[in-house]
Design a protein that fits this description.
The protein is mostly helical and 278 residues long. Helices cover 73% and strands 3% of the residues. It has helices at 5-18, 20-48, 63-81, 85-93, 95-101, 106-134, 145-174, 180-196, 209-216, 219-231, 247-273, and strands at residues 235-238, 241-244. The protein has a two-stranded antiparallel sheet. Helix 1 crosses helix 6, helix 2 (20-48) crosses helix 6 (106-134) and helix 7 (145-174) runs antiparallel to helix 10 (219-231).
């Protein structure tokens, strides 16, 4: 069995660990988002929605808990989309030319970058969950240790599939571009619409109809559905809205992410197959 992709994977992970500034910043950023933005926003939203009636028997979660799932998704999105910048640096430094000229299958480059990005996303997601619980987010409230483990694995499955899809997209863009500034511009242009046209920070019920349709099929909305199901539960009230997630909803969301990831892999495969690096 050809395991050439492990070379790409380990090389990227070693670089991630050795660049201390990048390592510390990527691990602290999600915690700081949750601490400052989450706590500040939760104090306001919880006060504004305090008087809204709650259905009998349904537990209420604070905004910090609600948006904690959005912070996990946001961090995964940013990490994944910027994952392709490694490919662009390799192009500019001449290393990608050597890799493409080697006997290694070009798919292994895509899978290696994808797996390293997924590993980074796992680390960040776990940090956010642990830090969120420490500052008051009601993740896994009332769950037994076994249920917590199952829920964490469920969240990581969603995070991994989502991260792979956007890493493949980032790789396809990076192999097609020549400058880091151009790649950063394209990624920045994509990031904000994907993030804000989702249910990361607020319900999407009040969106205009066309935007609501985009939000429903937004991969980030599918990811957050899975995270909230496992981290908060299938039935809860947050910021005045009653959320109910069935197992079918979660399965459909995961299948949607799977389809998205497959499409992005085919795009990346097509771009790498036709890539010419001088």
């Amino acid at each position: 069995m050809d395991l050439g992709f492990t070379t790409i994977f380990w090389r990227d992970m070693i670089r991630f660990v050795r660049f201390r500034t990048l390592l510390v910043a990527s691990l602290l950023q999600p915690a700081l988002w949750l601490a400052f933005f989450g706590i500040a926003m939760s104090s306001n939203f919880d006060r504004l929605t305090a008087g809204i009636p709650v259905p009998a028997g349904v537990h209420v979660v604070g905004y910090l808990t609600f948006m904690g799932a959005g912070i996990i998704a946001m961090t995964t999105l940013f990490t994944s989309l910027f994952g392709g910048i490694t490919i662009l640096f390799d192009k500019n430094w001449g290393l990608m030319r050597e890799i493409l000229a080697s006997p290694m299958n070009r798919n292994h480059i895509i899978f290696g970058i994808g797996l390293s990005g997924v590993a980074k996303s796992f680390i960040q997601a776990i940090i956010i969950m642990v830090f969120g619980v420490l500052i008051g987010a009601a993740f896994f409230a009332g769950d037994t240790p076994v249920q917590v483990i199952i829920s964490v694995l469920g969240i990581l499955a969603f995070v991994g599939m989502f991260a792979l899809g956007f890493l493949f997209l980032s790789a396809a863009i990076a192999i097609s571009m020549e400058s880091p500034e151009g790649l950063q511009g394209v990624i920045t242009l994509m990031t904000m619409p994907i993030f804000f046209a989702s249910n990361a920070l607020y319900p999407i019920d009040s969106f205009p109809e066309f935007l609501k349709i985009l939000s429903i099929y937004n991969p980030m909305t599918l990811l957050i559905t899975g995270i909230r199901y496992f981290a908060i539960g299938p039935d809860f009230v947050a910021i005045g809205k009653h959320y109910v997630f069935t197992q079918a909803d979660v399965l459909i969301s995961f299948l949607g992410l799977t389809v998205f990831t497959v499409i992005m892999f085919l795009l990346a495969y097509w771009r790498f197959k036709n890539a010419v690096v001088t």
